[in-house]
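Query structure, 305 tokens:
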């Protein structure tokens, strides 16, 4: 698997820094332009944009625009791309990026057709690439790089990994962690569409060996079994860093779709009770509200000292 942390963690002046650049697909659209500007302001090394038919122009008077991803990759050697296109154009944009050699693809569009997501994942697997999303707020190493749409305020550099199904809860819980003195080493929003390019269990594999990692927070939600799978993997792998979870939708009625397309409970499958039970087996306390997350984490870290 691509070393996502290593791919993202580069600073100006370091060897291969230019290869850690980010290409923005759809940079001339209002949404893509807004968030490209925000990423640049945060310090992200945006090296190119791609909009068919607008090659040869520049964005923001400085960043070159190309007609195709292959042209952009050839010119920049970038391995990271973020997609801001309507869902119906996602498959074509993602395929072009992966064929051009992109290794980390951040997929912002929501409601991507399931078949399109599956086709994209199949190609990504063949190419040894990682997809974050669709319907993701993105991925970031606080105070270094953000590839996504998350606001910068809640996040602070530190040693806690945060993996979240929900964008807004990622912000809220990271803010609570920051205010309690727990900065973040990396945060990953895996996305709320029915099929994720990166599941919770995949995100765990990406972050578990990060140098200096001191703990992990998992923000799940009702629906599916990704939280149960993650809890089992934590048990099987012997991962012993302090870990805390939060499950959104505990009070939601069963068999009714709630918000995210994947958040539907059938019987006990996908229920909050099922997820909490598995986390308990893995010795992972589950917060009843977001503000409780840093309190539980502090308690776990005291016990591990």
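Result returned for the query:
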């Amino acid at each position: 698997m691509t070393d996502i942390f290593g791919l993202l963690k580069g600073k100006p002046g370091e060897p291969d820094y230019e290869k850690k650049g980010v290409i923005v697909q759809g940079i001339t659209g209002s949404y893509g332009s807004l968030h490209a500007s925000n990423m640049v302001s945060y310090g992200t090394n945006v090296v190119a944009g791609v909009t068919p038919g607008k090659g040869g122009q520049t964005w923001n008077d400085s960043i070159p625009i190309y007609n195709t991803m292959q042209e952009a990759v050839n010119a920049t050697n970038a391995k990271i791309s973020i997609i801001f296109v309507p869902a119906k154009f996602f498959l074509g944009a993602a395929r072009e990026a992966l064929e051009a050699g992109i290794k980390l693809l951040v997929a912002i569009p929501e409601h991507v057709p399931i078949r399109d997501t599956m086709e994209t994942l199949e190609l990504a697997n063949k190419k040894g690439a990682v997809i974050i999303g669709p319907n993701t707020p993105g991925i970031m190493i606080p105070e270094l790089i953000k590839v996504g749409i998350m606001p910068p305020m809640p996040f602070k550099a530190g040693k806690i990994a945060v993996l979240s199904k929900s964008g807004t809860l990622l912000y809220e819980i990271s803010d609570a962690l920051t205010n309690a003195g727990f900065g973040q080493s990396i945060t990953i929003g895996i996305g709320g569409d029915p099929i994720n390019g990166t599941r919770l269990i995949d995100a765990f594999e990406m972050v578990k060996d990060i140098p200096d990692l001191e703990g992990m927070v998992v923000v799940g939600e009702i629906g599916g079994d990704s939280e149960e799978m993650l809890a089992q993997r934590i048990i099987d792998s012997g991962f012993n860093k302090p870990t805390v979870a939060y499950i959104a939708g505990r009070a939601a009625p069963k068999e009714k779709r709630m918000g995210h397309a994947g958040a539907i409970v059938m019987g006990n499958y996908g229920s909050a009770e099922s997820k909490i039970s598995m986390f308990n087996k893995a010795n992972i306390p589950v917060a009843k509200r977001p503000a409780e997350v840093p309190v539980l984490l502090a308690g776990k870290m005291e016990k591990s000292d």
